[in-house]
Each structure stands twice: as structure tokens, then as C-alpha cells.
């Protein structure tokens, strides 16, 4: 394998890992903002909420806990963990090849 290809694979793996980290960070920020009762009228809070809701569209309301905070932590937290695990697994695989 040529060093040029290896360097490209390394960079691609790094980009994939960073994207997964940013996605998980957004989801984690929304969980924190929700738990701390952040002002939803604030533009930053609204942006993070909208982005997190889009990222966790597949896991939002997946759980039916009685408490809203538990649904938020479980639904958005699951999405964050999946993005981290899958993203880093793909990044490692790309990096190795």
C-alpha cells in the first residue's frame, strides 16, 4: 500500500471520527440543556434542539418512560452512543485499509 493512500485513509478515518464526535456532542448538549431547563426561546438552545431532534429522529420517542427527562436522556442518549460507536468503528476500519 502506498504511503499516499495510507495518508488519505488516515485523513478519511479522522474526518469520520470527528463527524461522529460532533453529532454525539450536539445530542449530549441537548440532553444537558434539557436537564438544566435551558431557555428554549434562546437561539442557541433552539438550534441545538433542532439539530439534535433531526439527528435523533430515529430514536426520538423510542422509549415510553413516564418521566419526560428519562425519555429525552434515553432517546437522545441512545442516538449519541450509536453515532459514536458506529462512527468510530467505520473510522477505524477506513484507517486500517
Number of strands: 0
Structural class based on helices, strands and sheet pairing: mainly alpha
Arithmetic mean pLDDT: 91
Instruction: Report the biggest beta sheet as strand number plus sense, adding barrel if it closes.
Output: none
Q: Percent helix among the residues?
A: over 70%
Number of DSSP helical runs? 3
Q: Beta-sheet strand percentage?
A: under 5%
- The secondary-structure element order is HHH
Cα Rg: 16 Å
Can I get a quick summary?
The protein is an all-alpha fold and 97 residues long.
Molecular structure report:
- With 97 residues, this protein is mainly alpha-helical.
- It has three helices and no strands.
- Helix 1 (3-35) runs antiparallel to helix 3.
- The longest helix is centred in the N-terminal third of the chain and has 33 residues, at 3-35.
- It starts with a helix and ends with a helix.
- The model has no long low-confidence stretch (mean pLDDT 91).
Helices and strands, with pairings:
Blueprint: H1 3-35, H2 43-55, H3 68-96
Helix pairs in contact: 1-2, 1-3
Keyword list:
single chain; 97 residues; mainly alpha; 77% helix; 0% strand; elongated
